């Protein structure tokens, strides 16, 4: 049901990214192209990794896109899950659990200290699913982001 993504999956991954962004009410924020994903997943210095969830006939039903992070407190690398998406018709069929289980397996096999991700505070179905797996919210942390003009301004000083 779960396999490592290949170059041939790039159009499907981008479609899933767009569907996820639409679900998260942020479709207008997706600027990624197939060329971007191909470069950053399969180029000479990959920035991220992807897994594909398939149904029994091999049709992609979801994906997980992740990269390695590092915890100075643990003194170990970890997995940061950027995107987890399962098509609406396949939700509840075990694809999301299988994707997260594969990420956990990768982390354990490599000796990583954690798997972490962010979830929108209004996404109750996802929050309930994550809690059912034993994941715990990190309520004491607030995510900050530099992007666009603010990033350019600071980076050019």
Automatic annotation (TrEMBL):
The keyword Transferase appears for this protein: yes
Signal peptide segment: none
User: Which Pfam families would you find in this protein's record?
Assistant: Acetyltransf_1
For this UniProt record, give its keywords in alphabetical order, as a comma-separated list.
Acyltransferase, Transferase
**Does the entry feature the keyword Acyltransferase, yes or no?**
yes
Residues annotated as domain N-acetyltransferase: 1-152
Q: CDD domains under this entry?
A: NAT_SF
Official protein name in the record: GNAT family N-acetyltransferase
Q: What is the lineage of its organism?
A: Bacteria, Bacillati, Actinomycetota, Actinomycetes, Kitasatosporales
């Amino acid at each position: 049901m779960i396999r490592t993504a290949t170059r041939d999956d790039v159009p499907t991954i981008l479609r899933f990214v767009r569907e996820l962004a639409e679900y998260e009410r942020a479709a207008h924020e997706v600027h990624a192209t197939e060329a971007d994903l191909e470069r950053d997943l399969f180029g000479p210095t990959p920035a991220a990794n992807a897994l594909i969830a398939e149904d029994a006939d091999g049709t992609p039903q979801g994906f997980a896109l992740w990269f390695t992070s590092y915890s100075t407190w643990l003194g170990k690398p970890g997995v940061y899950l950027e995107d987890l998406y399962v098509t609406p018709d396949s939700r509840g069929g075990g694809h999301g659990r299988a994707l997260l289980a594969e990420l956990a397996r990768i982390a354990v096999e490599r000796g990583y200290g954690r798997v972490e991700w962010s979830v929108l505070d209004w996404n109750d179905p996802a929050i309930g699913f994550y809690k059912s797996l034993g994941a715990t919210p990190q309520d004491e942390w607030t995510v900050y982001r530099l992007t666009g003009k603010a990033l350019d301004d600071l980076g050019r000083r």
